[in-house]
Specification:
The complex is a heterodimer of chains A (about 400) and B (about 210).
Chain A (H helix, E strand, L loop, with lengths): L5 H14 L6 H10 L9 H7 L14 H18 L1 H7 L12 H8 L1 H18 L2 H9 L1 H9 L5 H15 L3 H14 L4 H8 L6 H7 L5 H7 L6 H8 L3 H7 L1 E2 L2 E2 H15 L5 H16 L11 H9 L3 H19 L24 H8 L4 H25 L2
Antiparallel strand pairs in A: 1-2
Helix pairs in contact in A: 4-6, 7-8, 7-10, 8-19, 10-11, 11-12, 11-14, 17-18, 18-19, 18-22, 20-22
Chain B lengths: L2 H27 L2 E7 L4 E5 L5 E6 L5 E9 L2 H4 L2 H8 L3 E7 L5 E8 L7 E6 L10 E8 L7 E5 L8 E6 L3 H18 L2 H19 L1
Antiparallel strand pairs in B: 1-10, 2-9, 3-8, 4-7, 4-9, 4-10, 5-6, 5-8
Helix pairs in contact in B: 1-4, 1-5
The chains are: A mainly alpha (about 400), B alpha+beta (about 210).
Chain lengths: ~400, ~210
């Protein structure tokens, strides 16, 4: 099946190879700063960071799960011979010269190779699931996933890949593998837990079968977390990531809105007869999530493969709605008072990019508009549009 | 279309991509560039009427436009506003930029009130029509007799001080030329094998696409 897409795949890889080295975000450095300790024989990163905080160049805690540390620690160890000694000088340099290393472009290139493999793998997976070349092309050539994977350079593509893999197994009715895949994704990052209910109720008539296997979605998390569960350093580091707080933050009459709307989406999902009910439910969750949660840009990738399927199968009006929604999301992102979300991405080309006026500063300096207030207003528009869109998709058969 | 033409189009496209991203975009956007700096000294040296400091540096770009020094005024935090004003207002710190013959080109007088605990004091001036390789001196002095009011960060032995320099481009043409030189310099500093692997991979993908 893939042979007829060979040239398209090479072109997609070429575009990515051209982009990968020249874009940077500090998250990729801070994450790899922590991952380096695995090859130094540190197995409990939480305790190590807590005990050595005063001597470490980068003081922040490791806010991810143990499996993330082991997976990417091993990946970094494999890449080590290609990275060279300068890589570790750069990784441990948090001083004034941290952006002035000439080889940053090659570090970015090498560190993003695992993401490239997962990204291409995800495109092939989408082609296998839907047997639709349009989805394949859209995944490979849309600027949003390229931005999320290669500009932001975050590892969220791995749990995203595993979530889509879980959906692939679900459609093939291989429930054990489906729950194990989502389980691995959860053990890497907690967010895929919001998709478990959609897997569980995918075929309500087979609920007993699902009941038998659903525990596998938590087994990888339990196994990898058990050695750390009694440690305060792990608990405080992990809770510091803030997704749970962010989900519960937006309240009406003291009730958190996101869980209530999520429950409504789930009820609608259980009774839905749509061919795309899973993809629709994920899109609905995304639409309310964006409006109700102060999200990090890289979180968009969690939902994006499923949104793309809805986008492709939508009529022009719905397509325009989703395009508008994403334009507003991008404006929201660019209005952060953080130049590393705008010009700072280009520091592998020239470290002077970080000193260029960011959109936030430009609005502040040249107009009477408060950019933070403008960003809040855009978030409110996103909430309104998200709720309207979510209700609209709830009616879709 | 013949395969050779397809390869040619691909390579032209890639060259356009690289030149836009590496040369044209920085030439349009980057007007100021940090030059030589010395920021590693941590000795806190007393700056008073008997102790002034002169630091030599060689410009690493054309058109010098600002210099910065790291000064410290501990009184700015520990004392009341009235005390600070009476103590610091009349006492000035002078930052002079001198040429290779130690003739003053520009000078800035700043009151103790504008010095933090510590803070980089930046002296911006209309750019000097200087060239890469020109020698300059930064002289920091004060009219303050007390030796516990103003301090400068430097090296106790050599009396060198922490400083930064900043340069500008006069126009797009100059910026364009500078960026080409800057990127070529960076390219040359990278390992040949790394450059070879990266560009070789691109060429290999080009060939796979056209075959």
């Amino acid at each position: 099946m893939l042979s007829k897409y060979k040239k398209i795949l090479f072109l997609a890889i070429l575009i990515r190879v051209l982009i990968m080295p020249f874009f940077y975000h500090p998250d990729i450095k801070s994450q790899h700063y922590h991952f380096q300790f695995l090859s130094r024989g540190i197995f409990n990163i939480y305790e190590y960071l807590s005990q050595n905080k005063s001597t470490l160049g980068y003081k922040d805690t490791f806010n991810y799960l143990p499996l993330t540390y082991y997976t990417f620690g091993i990946t970094q160890a494999i890449t080590k011979p290609f990275l060279g000694n300068d890589f570790y000088l750069w990784l441990n340099d948090w001083g004034e010269n941290k952006n002035n290393y000439i080889n940053i472009i090659y570090y970015m290139f090498l560190l993003k190779i695992p993401y490239l493999i997962l990204d291409i793998g995800l495109a092939i997976l989408l082609l296998k699931i839907f047997n639709n070349s349009k989805i394949f092309y859209f995944w490979l050539f849309n600027p949003i996933s390229i931005y999320l994977i290669y500009v932001l350079g975050n590892f969220d593509i791995l749990p995203t890949f595993l979530t889509v893999l879980s959906f692939y197994f679900l459609r093939k009715q291989k429930l054990l593998f489906s729950y194990l895949s989502i389980g691995l994704a959860i053990a890497l990052k907690m967010y895929p837990i919001i998709f478990v209910a959609f897997i569980f109720f995918y075929e309500p008539k087979n609920i007993l079968k699902h009941l038998k296997y659903c525990c596998f979605s938590l087994i990888p998390l339990i196994i990898t977390v058990i050695p750390f569960i009694n440690q305060n350093t792990f608990i405080s580091s992990f809770l510091g990531s803030g997704l749970t707080q962010k989900i519960l933050e937006y309240k009406l009459l003291n009730l958190p809105i996101f869980p209530i709307l999520y429950l409504l989406i789930l009820i609608n999902y259980i009774f839905s007869k749509s061919k795309y009910k899973f993809e629709l439910a994920v899109t609905q969750t995304f639409l309310i999530f964006i409006g109700l949660v102060k999200f990090h840009p890289q979180w968009l990738i969690w939902f994006f493969p499923f949104i793309l399927i809805i986008f492709i199968n939508s009529k022009i009006f719905n397509k325009l709605y989703l395009i508008l929604f994403f334009i507003l999301i991008y404006i929201y992102i660019f209005l952060f008072n953080d130049n590393f979300l705008f010009w700072g991405h280009l520091i592998p080309i020239d470290s002077a990019f970080i000193d260029i006026t960011s959109p936030f500063q430009l609005i502040k300096l040249k107009t009477s508009i408060n950019p933070s207030l403008l960003q809040q207003q855009i978030h409110q528009i996103l909430l309104l549009l998200g709720i309207i869109g979510s209700f609209f998709y709830a009616k879709k058969k | 279309m013949p395969k050779r033409n397809k390869l040619f189009i691909l390579i032209i496209g890639e060259l356009l991509f690289f030149s836009s991203l590496l040369i044209i975009l920085p030439s349009i956007l980057i007007k100021k560039r940090d030059g030589i700096s010395q920021t590693s000294y941590s000795d806190v040296l007393s700056l008073d009427v008997n102790h002034s400091f002169t630091q030599k540096f060689i410009a690493d770009y054309d058109n010098l436009r600002s210099i910065s020094v790291l000064l410290k005024n501990p009184g700015i935090i520990n004392k009341s506003q009235i005390e600070i004003e009476t103590q610091s207002q009349s006492k000035m710190v002078s930052i002079e930029l001198q040429d290779k013959d130690k003739n003053t080109i520009n000078s800035l007088e700043t009151s103790g009130l504008s010095i933090g605990d510590p803070s980089w004091i930046t002296y911006n001036f209309p750019y000097i029509d200087s060239k890469k390789g020109d020698i300059f001196y930064i002289k920091v002095s004060t009219n303050n007799e007390l030796n516990d009011q103003f301090f400068i960060y430097g090296d106790n032995e050599s009396k060198s001080i922490n400083f930064r320099s900043n340069y500008t481009s006069k126009n797009f043409k100059e910026s364009f030329q500078k960026n080409i030189a800057y990127q070529l310099d960076k390219f040359r500093q990278r390992k040949i094998v790394d450059n070879f692997i990266y560009f070789g991979l691109i060429l290999f993908l080009d060939i796979l696409i056209i075959l």
